[in-house]
Design brief:
The chain is mostly beta strands. The protein is 14% helix and 56% strand.
């Protein structure tokens, strides 16, 4: 009987130590790393296909992808670093009005950093709101007419403004499932030799809606 009692006590002490160690390790998991993908939805003038609108971007819904890292400084405050890529299809308004004309795509890639506010709901759900800025490289469309390039593509640099909301579901392991939406605004400048003046800007407003998977460590 004494041996059984001592064995039970030893197992209880060992179990308590393991749980305490697991809780400590869980508290130390302050980093999140995600891979995300989804749709990129153009907004405002960027989505306009009105050929009388000089600010029309004629962009259609495309796809977006990103890699995001978060570090949780405190329970409710952290920082984020996110790398973006997005590609937008183009409206057929140009080819309809000018048969023989083709326009390829808009695309951009860049890096943003900013603060994150974490809003935990229970033990397994974590919302966050964030704002970020950085640098974005944007590629303007190439326009061809009957196979001949009449407006060449160009790469412009811009400082984006990003705001967003996301929710992450914490599993029993380090695996995390992610869903979120980000609004991005930027105004890159391009040099189009066939334009007068050659330096032109394009307002880009877009909404990225993404799902992702990652882990905490």
């Amino acid at each position: 009987m004494l041996r059984i009692t001592l064995l039970c006590l030893a197992l209880m002490v060992l179990g308590t130590g393991v749980r305490a160690q697991d809780a400590s390790n869980s508290k130390e998991q302050k980093s999140f790393l995600f891979v995300q993908g989804g749709v990129a939805i153009p907004l405002a003038d960027f989505a306009s296909a009105d050929l009388t609108n000089e600010n029309a971007g004629m962009a259609k819904t495309g796809f977006s992808g990103s890699i995001q890292y978060n570090y949780r400084i405190q329970q409710y405050v952290g920082v984020m670093l996110q790398g973006h890529y997005a590609d937008f299809a183009m409206s057929d308004a140009m080819s309809k009005n000018f048969p023989g004309a083709t326009v390829d795509h808009w695309q951009y890639a860049g890096l943003v950093v900013g603060p994150v506010i974490f809003l935990p709901v229970g033990d397994r759900v974590l919302f966050d709101v964030h704002a970020a800025s950085g640098v974005m490289w944007t590629n303007s469309p190439k326009v061809k007419y009957q196979g001949q390039t009449i407006v060449d593509e160009d790469w412009g640099t811009a400082v984006p403004v990003q705001t967003g909301l996301s929710v992450r579901f914490l599993t029993n392991t380090k695996l995390v499932v992610f869903a979120g939406a980000d609004y991005l605004y930027m105004k890159p400048e391009f040099r189009i030799e066939s334009s007068d003046p050659p330096d032109v800007t394009q307002k880009i407003n877009a909404l990225h809606v993404q799902l992702g998977i990652g882990f905490r460590f």
